Amino acid sequence: MSYQTLCVLGLGYIGLPTASTFATHGLKVIGVDTNPAIVESLNNGKVHIFEPGLRTLVQAAVHSGNLVIKDQPQPADAFIIAVPTPFKENKLADLSFVTAAAEAITPHLKKGNLVILESTSPPRTTVDILLPILEKSGLSAGKDFQLAYSPERVLPGQILRELIENARVIGGINDDSAKAGKLLYSTFVRGEIFLTDATTAEMVKLMENTYRDINIAAANEFARLADRFQVDIWEAISLANRHPRVEILNPGPGVGGHCISVDPWFFVEAAPDLTSLIHSARQVNDSQPEYVVNFLERKTGKLNGKKITALGLAYKPDVDDLRESPSIETVIHLRDAGAKVTVYEPFDTDHSIEAVISARTLQEAVTQADLIILLVGHSQLKEIDPTELAKNTSARTVLDTVNGWNKQEWQKAGFSIYKLGDGKQP
Ligand code: SAJ
Q1: What atom of ligand 1 comes closest to residue 316's alpha carbon?
Q2: How far is the CA of 146 from the centre of ligand 1 (A)?
Q3: Rounded to an integer, what is the distance from CA 266 to the centroid of its chain?
Q4: Which of 59, 254, 319, 368 has its CA 20 to 30 A from that of 273?
Q5: Are the C-beta atoms of residues 340 and 306 closer than 8 Å to each other?
Q6: Does the annotation mark 259 as catalytic?
Q7: pLDDT tens digits, residue range 350-364?
Q8: Which residue's CA lies nearest to atom 32 of ligand 1?
Q9: Quick one: which atom of ligand 1 is closest to the CA of 253?
Q10: How many A from CA of 392 to the centre of ligand 1?
Q11: What is the average pLDDT value for the chain, to the nearest integer?
């Protein structure tokens, strides 16, 4: 048996590329989102997310007639839940979108259906939360319908390629469910597909992002140490990384996005007595924006009253996603330290932060500045020519938090340049 029709719930960064890729590989796909604005814009041919190649893919899927966008699920052979799992103020997982999606599927469930959860979730969500809701249909999970957890692993900025090429883990509530998942994803996945149980698959996903978070926290702590001991962290990391078994990541203003800065908390919530390392890593990364502002103040004096231009607000380079962005946190700390802050985010010039000026162009952003700070290594910000910039700004001091700028070039153009983690610079 193969799956002919698929209903994908949640048309965000994962759901929309997934629904469109299935559609362009021949399945009849119903893409569902409860946000009427998203449904309307997609139905008008507009894509609400910036991701290289996504607009073309969505348009191809819609024009082929294989992808239709609705605000409610409809009967289908298979269902994929790809809704957000954010955390609440208290860092506890908010599973309300997952439970709402499951409740919406239940009335449409039929014998032979397959349900897959893709949203990153705390361990045991599939068996303890999803399964009982779906069984309210009167059908038995693993017998009448199959149920599996399969985490997405795609990197924003490279989603379309990684969706197809990455290895995929599919955890079934039993063997038949895992095999059913494999049958569905084999439609387009060219990477290896590994089958396991649902809770292992949930843990695998959380472990991947937690591992990266801990490694970035180590890099950030090394940067703080380098500053104390008059070492340039960027030189030190590049030398340490010549060791055949060492690969230290990059320090920066912190860890953002809706994945790595969120997922480790699911472990902390589920087992606070076992997660002191994971918890500490989160605290190091979350305190990095404050560290950046203190570093700047130590190097350049009181920030109160200074006109500071912050370049980049996105959570990482070359994406338009501002969720959980440490750059925004840094800007808020600068503002609260009394600086008059102007921001320029080339991917989202409409974004606004209270009591902070948003510039629409680089030129507008820097003209009046006393100090410029690079927060995101967007390609176009890294490519700024300091000699040209010097003609358009009164600032002669810059802070580079991401090692995006060449120190000698900026010095030659007349700037004092500080780098986060460069303790060699007084
Ligand atoms: N960052 C650093 N230093 C580094 C690398 C990253 O400070 O050396 C920061 C980034 O600037 C950003 C944050 O970490 O603020 C996260 O960026 P990222 O590129 O490491 O990861 P995401 O959040 O874009 O995507 C991650 C990926 N997970 C892993 O690499 C283990 C991706 O494969 C997942 O699919 C995705 O999370 C997800 O959706 O869970």
Answers
A1: 11
A2: 31
A3: 16
A4: 254
A5: yes
A6: yes
A7: 888 999 999 999 999
A8: 155
A9: 7
A10: 34
A11: 96
Between the two ends of the chain, the Cα-to-Cα distance in Å is 69
Among 182, 205, 340, 419, which one carries the catalytic annotation? 205
Domain spanning 5-191, CATH class = alpha beta
Report the distance separating Cα 251 and Cα 29, nearest Å: 42
205 carries an active-site annotation:
yes
* pTM of the full structure: 0.94
pLDDT digits (tens, 9 = 90+) for 75-131: 999 999 999 998 888 888 999 999 999 999 999 999 999 999 999 999 999 999 999
pLDDT at 403 over 90: yes
Tell the residue nearest (CA) to atom 40 of ligand 1: 259
Indicate which atom in ligand 1 lies nearest the CA of residue 325: 15
Contact indicator for 153, 189 with CB cutoff of 8 Å: no
For the stretch 310-334, what's the b/e string if a residue is b when 16 or more beta carbons lie within 10 angstroms of its beta carbon?
bbbbbbbbbbbbbbbbbbbbbbbbb
Its CATH architecture, for the domain 221-419, is 3-Layer(aba) Sandwich (3.40)
Phi, psi of 160 (to 5 degrees): -65, -40
How far is Cα 268 from Cα 282, in angstroms, rounded to an integer? 10
Q: Are 345 and 377 a contacting pair, CB within 8 Å?
A: no
Residues with CB under 6 A from ligand 1: 120, 152-156, 208-209, 212, 216, 249-250, 252, 255-257, 259-260, 315-316
Q: Could you tell me where the beta strands, DSSP code E, fall in 49-128?
A: 67-70, 78-81, 114-117
pLDDT of residue 1: 62
Structure confidence at residue 44 (pLDDT) = 86
Residue 31's pLDDT is what? 98
Q: What are the boundaries of each domain within the chain?
A: 5-191, 221-419
Rounded CA-CA distance 199/162 in Å is 23
Q: How far is CA 92 from each of CA 138, 263, 266, 269, 270, rounded to the nearest angstrom? A: 31, 10, 7, 6, 9
Q: What is the pLDDT of residue 425?
A: 84
